[in-house]
Amino acid sequence: MEELANKTCIPCKGGVPPLPVPERKALLAKLAQGWELTHDQNHLFKSFKFNEFKTPMRYVIEIGRLAEEQGHHPELTVGWGHLEVELWTHKISSLVESDFILAAKIDRLMQESKSPMQKITPCLWFDNQAEEAVEFYTSIFKNSKVTGLTRYGEAGAEVSGRPRGSVATVSFQLEGQDFVALNGGPVFTFSPALSLMVNCQTQKEIDTIWQRLSEGGKTEQCGWLRDKYGVSWQIVPTIMDELFQTKDYPQSERVWKAMIKMVKLDIETLKRASMEK
Known about the structure:
Layout: H1 2-5, H2 21-28, E1 36-37, E2 44-49, H3 54-70, E3 75-79, E4 82-87, H4 97-114, E5 123-126, H5 130-140, E6 145-151, H6 154-160, E7 167-174, E8 177-183, E9 195-200, H7 203-213, E10 218-219, E11 224-226, E12 232-237, H8 240-244, H9 249-259, H10 267-275
Parallel strand pairs: 5-8, 9-12
Antiparallel strand pairs: 1-2, 2-4, 3-4, 6-7, 7-8, 10-11, 11-12
């Protein structure tokens, strides 16, 4: 993402050929998760979710400033709890590199705006696999990186029983969210009582993350899995809130009945259940 975000958009005056489809897909792979090509593959789209109205409105203003700076302007749709961004080059009704550059800049804007606001950081207690686990997790999620590492000194080694000089903690980010992994020994283990929920926009995203996280682990009911380190995850589609948070009780009940029969969640099956009479 950083490679694209560091570039500058070039205003299109028309007469520029659209990017070939393989190049569009290659640039899409460099963006943070959530961006999609539309059905005709001529537009780039992403939906951002929030839990109130003020934040998406603030981002509309910030994205507007960014668009003016770059001379490249997205279509924005905003409402309570959501902001949709759609990009394409209007002069040619298709995509050029600048559309992907602006998408990467928007992602960076979102990430930088969120980072100072995070007050609660999950700490995952491992026996001695913190580095290995972090390498595994950051290979799965986009916009992910190691941000710091500490080692046990003499005092820490004495208290923990870990070797002096060995890795104590690894700080890292997954999709811009801060985490800490701790090598604390076998005193405590993970439990499904605490799980990490991954909100996925598409079935492809669900399938990919499910397959990677479940390698060497165990899949469970209703979109839950335990990875090979024992950490529990819920891999869920973003549409779940819409399907469940409805005043139509029979619809909600149909979705519940469909979901409890599943291991990995299937978006189309859940949608069909919601529409049945």
